[in-house]
Automatic annotation (TrEMBL):
GO cellular component: plasma membrane
KW Repeat (keyword) present: yes
Compartments, record wording: Cell membrane
InterPro entries: Cadherin-like_dom, Cadherin-like_sf, Cadherin_C, Cadherin_CS, Cadherin_N, Protocadherin/Cadherin-CA
Annotated GO MF terms: calcium ion binding; cell adhesion molecule binding
UniProt cross-references to CDD domains, sorted A to Z: Cadherin_repeat (cd11304)
Protein name, as recorded: Protocadherin beta 9
PANTHER family per the UniProt record, alphabetical: CADHERIN-87A, PROTOCADHERIN BETA-9
Domain Cadherin: 68-133, 134-242, 243-347, 348-451, 452-561, 576-671
Signal peptide, first to last residue: 1-26
Membrane topology: Single-pass type I membrane protein
Parts of the chain that traverse the membrane: 688-711
UniProt gene name: PCDHB9
Superkingdom of the source species: Eukaryota
């Protein structure tokens, strides 16, 4: 808590005068209770539950507490039983001094709803102090010519008790010269006066000694004594005379020690020693003697210690002037203490909450009381908090204030507030007190997890290892603690045929996604699913995001040769006339690749050949063509091995074997298969020239006959005959046929062939090639539809 001079900011202000301001949260009664002083700690005062008309246990449920005005805990509340007990042994004289009645004011505070009850406790006096005279001996100098009936005022005894327990009577020891007369004052106190009954004679008795007794009214009565020594003086016929009977003055409470307060003055008409006047306090209490001092010669009154307006606001005491002959006179001095702004406002916290749940408007955070011991403008106060905070002060009764939230707080915007309550008085100079409160805003689950993206795209290369980490999803949650702890899950797929549980899994704690099994691009190129994120608040909040998984192709499929077939059946033989020009199309190797992209880009090259340099293969379309003119020296039987390679990494390949027969013309009657050619060549070597000679004579006749017979036979057996090079049905899987534009076959080639009649070995001749252009996506279908070779007209590939 800080106290310093005030520099007033333009902030929200609540002006509260220490006069009553009738603003209250609830109707509050006024309870009056009493207790006898000096009772032991824990003594019963009252049952508050019964007195307030509340059920047993209600005080504890409503957080009832007792707050005293001076922030001292004189009373203790047992909230379970409702009993109000003393918290210490109370001494009325220490608490209130001479003030009567002795009242202790306190408040009873309750929550739910908030209420303040004002109450007061009267501390009843007991006779626990005896009267005490300040001086054990008093000296009176009385002239021998003093008239009978003259009264001499004596110093009164002091008794801290009040009322009936205070001093009620004075007595004097038995004697023949004096008796005691009791006199009252305007302050409600009694004074003893010694009254002369018989004239004194100094020559007979110079001194008298009497005992003065003070009695209080307690039961049993207490008393105190003092000795009065009377000195009989010679005649002094002029007593001192004060210039004023009453001296009034003012002294600021911040006057320094040693300051002159007032000066009294008395004159004496006598001369010599009888005219010498001395000044003193008459019948002064201990607080007067410790606060002021008087110069016995000059009559000046000085300050011995600092004044405190809040403790004593005025002093009224008697001053005695005595001459050298023993005659005296008295006057009254009234000193009024002027208040100065020397007390900063006090802020007394009655209840305080350092934590509040967010989204809760109108919550009571603190209840406190403002107190300023100064008076007037010095005691008026202003109370406020910072303008930029969502809090306000609500005044209540008896200088109480309530600090409340102005609206619902949002922890995500601000989790902690430093609230400074400033109380300033209106004195000069202004003093202020600051009290800081640190408020923590506790979290409420009001924020659902939020994904950083509405959809995620993950890439997985096929043939991955099981349990491969493929990616993560990462939502954020603006809450804290348990409310921000997120659990991840896979939501049911929208496609009921997608086996999501066997494809991926998610780590419920961190959102990592794993592929459960090896993926095959050729079977599944992509799939998508939804991921849910649920926090652990109550109630739980959740959100979801779409995850799309794209399977990347790997080069895991080798090229597959569609034509010529490589299934171990009788190989197909291509016929090439020896008169073919360079670039003559012999055949075309057709292959496909089950992969995609560059993994399906195929290239062709001639790996082996019987006659290197005779044939060539076009790298991009697999066409086999002659590279030069054929000669008689070229072997009639040619074997070619073509390598088909994809563009993957690492590349995969396949080979196709081709058999080519070089013929003089397509009209030769018999062409042996490559397997029988070596044995037959030696047997026919002697008749070669004969056959050539006969052929040259009758070639025209034989050509006509052969053509006629061949045409007739082909037409009759077209439905029943199957070519030696037919493609078996069901050989190629469906997914390998549909090359989707990635294969290399962009033309379909059709050959018209005819079987030779009566041939046991199934020789055939290609009459002419017919080229038909097809789009890529029709190639596979054409191959499948025309997989059966027709004996007379040919096949498509």
């Amino acid at each position: 808590m800080k106290t310093r001079g005030f520099s007033f900011p333009r902030q929200r202000q609540v002006l509260f005068l220490f006069l009553f301001w009738g603003v209250s949260l609830a109707g509050s009664g006024f309870g009056r209770y009493s207790v006898t002083e000096e009772t032991e700690k824990g003594s019963f005062v009252v049952n508050l539950a019964k007195d307030l008309g509340l059920a047993e246990g209600k005080l504890a449920a409503r957080g009832t507490r007792v707050v005293s005005d001076d922030n001292k805990q004189y009373l203790l509340l047992d909230s379970h039983t409702g009993n109000l007990l003393t918290n210490e042994k109370l001494d009325r004289e220490k608490l209130c001094g001479p003030k009567e009645p002795c009242m202790l004011y306190f408040q009873i505070l309750m929550d739910d709803p908030f209420q303040i009850y004002r109450a007061e406790l009267r501390v009843r006096d007991i006779n626990d102090h005896s009267p005490v005279f300040r001086h054990k001996e008093m000296v009176l100098k009385i002239s021998e010519n003093t008239a009978e009936g003259t009264a001499f005022r004596l110093e009164r005894a002091q008794d801290p008790d009040e009322g009936h327990n205070s001093i009620q009577n004075y007595t004097i020891s038995p004697n023949s010269f004096f008796h005691i007369k009791i006199s009252g004052s305007d302050e409600g106190m009694i004074y003893p006066e010694l009254v002369l009954d018989k004239a004194l004679d100094r020559e007979e008795q110079e001194e008298l000694s009497l005992t003065l007794t003070a009695l209080d009214g307690g039961s049993p009565s207490r008393s105190g004594t003092s000795t009065i020594r009377i000195v009989v003086l010679d005649v002094n016929d002029n007593a001192p005379q004060f210039a004023q009977a009453l001296y009034e003055t003012q002294a600021p409470e911040n006057s320094p020690v040693g300051s002159r307060i007032v000066k009294v003055s008395a004159g004496d008409a006598d001369s010599g020693v009888n005219a010498e006047v001395s000044y003193s306090f008459f019948d002064a209490s201990e607080d007067i003697l410790t606060t002021f001092q008087i110069n016995p010669s000059s009559g000046e009154i000085f300050l011995r210690e600092l004044l405190d307006y809040e403790l004593v606001n005025s002093y009224k005491r008697n001053i005695q002037a005595m001459d050298g002959g023993g005659l005296s006179a008295r006057c009254t001095v009234l000193i009024k203490v002027l208040d100065s702004n020397d007390n900063p406002p006090e802020l007394i916290i009655s209840s305080l909450s350092n934590s509040v749940a967010e989204n809760s408007p109108g919550i009571v955070l603190a209840v406190f009381k403002i107190k300023d011991r100064d008076s007037g403008e010095n005691g008026k106060t202003i109370c406020y908090v910072q303008d930029n905070l969502p809090f306000f002060l609500k005044p209540s009764v008896d200088n109480f204030y309530i600090l409340m939230t102005e609206g619902a707080l949002d922890r995500e915007s601000k989790a902690e507030y430093n609230i400074t309550i400033t109380v300033t008085d209106l004195g000069t100079p202004r003093l202020k007190t600051e009290h800081s409160i640190t408020l923590q805003v506790s979290d409420v689950n009001d924020n659902a997890p939020a994904f950083t993206q509405t959809s995620y795209t993950l890439f997985v290369r096929e043939n991955n290892s099981p349990a491969l980490h493929v990616g993560s999803v990462s939502p954020t949650d603006g809450d804290s603690g348990t409310n921000a702890q997120v659990t991840y899950s896979l939501l049911p797929p929208q496609d009921p045929h997608l086996p999501l549980a066997s494809l991926v899994s998610i780590n419920a704690d961190n959102g990592h996604l794993f592929a459960l099994r090896s993926l095959d691009y050729e079977a599944l190129q992509a799939f998508e699913f939804r991921v849910g994120a649920t926090d652990r608040g109550s109630p739980a909040l959740s959100s979801e995001a779409l995850v799309r998984v794209l399977v990347l192709d790997a080069n895991d499929n080798s090229p597959f040769v569609l034509y010529p077939l490589q299934n171990g059946s009788a190989p197909c033989t291509e016929l090439v006339p020896r008169a073919a020009e360079p670039g003559y199309l012999v055949t075309k190797v057709v292959a496909v690749d089950g992969d995609s992209g560059q993994n399906a880009w195929l290239s062709y090259q001639l790996l082996k050949a019987t006659e290197p340099g005779l044939f060539g293969v076009w790298a991009h379309n697999g066409e086999v063509r002659t590279t030069r003119l054929l000669s008689e020296r070229d072997a009639a039987k040619q074997r070619l091995v073509v390598l088909v390679k994809d563009n993957g990494e690492p590349p995969r390949s396949a080979t196709a074997t081709l058999h080519v027969l070089l013929v003089d013309g397509f009209s030769q009657p018999y062409l042996p298969l490559p397997e029988a050619a070596p044995a037959q060549a030696q047997a026919d070597s002697l008749t070669v020239y004969l056959v050539v000679a006969l052929a040259s004579v009758s070639s025209l006749f034989l050509l006509s006959v052969l053509l006629f017979v061949a045409v007739r036979l082909c037409r009759r057996s077209r439905a029943a005959s199957v070519g030696r090079c037919s493609v078996p049905e069901g050989l190629f899987p469906g997914h390998l046929v549909d090359v989707s534009g990635t294969g290399t076959l962009f033309q379909s080639y059709q050959y018209e062939v005819c079987l030779t009649g009566g041939s046991e070995t199934g020789e055939f001749k290609f009459l002419k090639p017919i080229t038909r252009h097809l789009p890529p996506h029709r190639v596979g279908k054409e191959i499948e539809e025309n997989s059966t070779l027709h004996n007379s007209f040919g096949f498509n590939y």
